[in-house]
Amino acid sequence: MDRGNTKQEILEASLELFSVQGFEATSVSQIAGAVGIRKASLYSHFENKQAILDALVKEVLEQYEAHSIFAKADQEKDAGDLPMTPDAAVQMIQGQIRYILHDPSISRARKMLVIEQFQNPELAKLQTKQNYSDVLQYFTGLIARLIQQGVLAEDDPEIMAAQFCLPISVWINLCDREPDREPEVMALVSRHIQQFFKVYQPKEQTVFFQELD
Predict the structure, then answer these.
(1) What gap in Å lies between CA 48 and CA 37, rounded to an integer?
(2) If we measure between CA atoms, which residue out of 161, 141, 130 comes closest to residue 65?
(3) Dihedral sign of CA atoms 71, 74, 78, 82 in order
(4) Phi, psi values for residue 119, rounded to 5°
(5) Which of 54, 93, 96, 191 has the fewest CB atoms within 10 Å, measured from its CB?
(6) Distance from C-alpha of 20 to C-alpha of 185, rounded to nearest angstrom
(7) Are 11 and 56 in contact, with CB atoms under 8 Å apart?
């Protein structure tokens, strides 16, 4: 086993242990044992346990920023990339939920943050950023663009974003605790998004469809 592979195995084993029992409760000896190396060998790759955590956070954040739509909150979206219909929004959000729940690194990192948020101030800030601030900022911008495009009625974008995304965050947390409820959650997400678009349908469209009826 070469040095590069060993270092990655240490990171993966550490993340698995941190996500189950937390950073403080995990010892360097446990990490070394999970990898199948001596404790002294681990120190040839990382100075201490904090260095492992720092490397993990950096690696997971890079992956999250590359693949998560929520990490792109400051980027402008072309109109062609916007979910212009409820069905398109359902497909986009359900895809993101599957990524969050099933990508091994992202899923374990999120569980680690849940455990550590009341013990580690830096990880608490990261938990707030990734699971609240970034998400709300992304959806505030998205909904503002949909209002500009005439897809949604004009209202307070930040409040609309909270109404849209915060129930979804609760359902993702539910899946973390009870994975077998994922199909139920996906159905709820679909119904929620469909109703959101209906509630905030522009008045012109509402009148048009009423006339058709």
Answers:
(1) 15
(2) 130
(3) positive
(4) -120, -30
(5) 191
(6) 23
(7) yes
User: What does the DSSP 8-state code read for residue 81?
Assistant: G
Cβ–Cβ contacts within 10 Å for residue 209, how many?
A: 10
3-21 vs 28-35: helix crossing angle, rounded to 10 = 120
DSSP state of 153: -
| Helix 157-177, helix 182-199: angle, nearest 10 | 170
Structure tokens at 105: 């690194």
H-assigned helices in the chain: 3-21, 28-35, 39-42, 49-67, 86-102, 104-116, 121-128, 134-148, 157-177, 182-199, 203-212
Place of tokens 């060993």: 6
Q: Is the dihedral of CA 89, 95, 101, 104 positive or negative?
A: negative
Question: Angle at Cα 11 formed by Cα 94 and Cα 104, nearest 5°?
Answer: 20
Phi and psi angles of residue 24, each rounded to the nearest 5 degrees, phi first:
-65, -35
Structure tokens at 19: 């996500």
Instruction: Retrieve residue 31's tokens.
Output: 């990490």
